[in-house]
Amino acid sequence: MKIEDAKERIKELQHYVNVYEDYEPQNVKQMAVKLYAELNNVNQVATALNEKGYRKEGKLVAGKRAQVKLNSNDVTKMLISEVDNGDQLHPIVKRILNRNRRRKGIVN
User: From the CB of residue 45, how many other CB atoms can be counted at a distance below 10 Å?
Assistant: First the structure.
């Protein structure tokens, strides 16, 4: 690797770390983004969100929507969803997720 390429990579990684450290999640989607930046694993993110008490609406039971645990597919949907205005971490995490999925042979 050329020194200039290494310097550029260091700048990119430092920007990623700075954005992550300044990130303040306001909702479950943003929490999933921050957790994926930490864990790089959608199963672990789903487990962490469930432990924090986050739930999604499930089937209709007795006239009410049941609250059910999140799974890895729910987390993936949040991460590949549209990026909110001003959210700097989500586009970075989305690229990382897509790169990881391509490596595993999962195509969008």
Answer: 26
| 66-106 pLDDT per residue, tens | 889 999 999 999 999 999 999 999 999 999 999 988 887 76
Cβ atoms of 79 and 54 within 8 Å: the answer is: no
User: What would the DSSP string read from start to end of the chain?
Assistant: --HHHHHHHHHHHHHHHHHHHH----SHHHHHHHHHHHH--HHHHHHHHHHTT--EEEEEETTEEEEE---HHHHHHHHHSPPPTT-SHHHHHHHHHHHHHHHTT---
CA distance 14 to 104: 26
Q: What is the largest CA-CA distance in the chain?
A: 64
* pLDDT over 80 (residue 107): no
Q: How many Å apart are CA 86 and CA 90, to the nearest integer?
A: 10
Measured CA to CA, the distance from residue 89 to residue 30 in angstroms comes to 9
The overall average pLDDT reported for the chain is 93
